[in-house]
Amino acid sequence: MATAEPDINPNIQNSEEEKNAASGQAIVSPEDYIKHPLQNRWALWFFKNDKSKTWQANLRLVSKFDTVEDFWALYNHIQLSSNLMSGCDYSLFKDGIEPMWEDERNKKGGRWLITLSKQQRRADLDSFWLETLLCLVGEAFDDHSDDVCGAVVNIRTKGDKIAIWTTDYENKDAIIHIGQVYKARLGLPPQVILGYQSHVDTATKSGSTTKNKFVV
Q1: 88-102, pLDDT tens digit by residue?
Q2: Contact 178, 144 (CB under 8 A)
Q3: What tens digit of pLDDT does each residue of 157-174 get?
Q4: Which of 67, 122, 139, 146 has the fewest CB atoms below 10 angstroms from its CB?
């Protein structure tokens, strides 16, 4: 026995759409205007090396954000790292943590460090830094994301550097996990070694002689 199709008046079905079209109004989903919160609030800092000022006077807070949309609005508004003058830094840190070794959350910590060649400034610097930012704001390190304090990009004549800072250089499990995820996210080949150094060692030795506590 055939089942009769329900009798729907197409004029009734489309009346709401026509009404909206006639008034020039689109049907707006809440997704279109509700911002997407991040797990943490973040602060972007800028450092410009002016030798007439103290180190702290050269460091200034650019902006804070805690939504996906505000992150992209800020990122698209500022200069790319590759366009900064030598001696400048960008730092992205969780709100409440200042981008310096002396901060309470940083002083017992360390950093996963990437040193780029001069040629990599045009080829890799901007994409590596953006991926680093996305790892941070996207909490890419699973349960160990709480150990992450922030990240820094240093623009230098000899070679630019990017580092992810963590809060405790003795927390091996967290550090290794963060390093492995970070290396994978950057798409670095297995033969490229990523090294982790404690801030204590970095502060007391020149960069070239600082030993890696961990490598991935």
Answers
A1: 999 999 999 999 999
A2: yes
A3: 999 999 999 999 999 999
A4: 122
Contact (CB, 8 A) for 60 and 46: yes
Contact between 195 and 215 under an 8 Å Cβ cutoff? The reply is yes
Predicted TM-score (pTM) of this structure:
0.83
**Encoded tokens for 131:** 């991926």
Contact criterion met (CB below 8 Å) for 7 and 38: no
**Look-up: residue for tokens 């590596």?**
128
Give the span between the Cα atoms of 2 and 8, in whole angstroms.
Answer: 18
Residues 6+ apart with CB under 8 A from 90: 44, 45, 46, 47, 78, 81, 84, 129, 152, 153
Q: 3-class SS at 46?
A: strand
Q: Could you give the dihedral angle defined by the CA atoms of residues 84, 86, 92 and 97, in that order, rounded to the nearest 10 degrees? A: -140
Strands (E), 18-95: 37-47, 59-67, 89-94
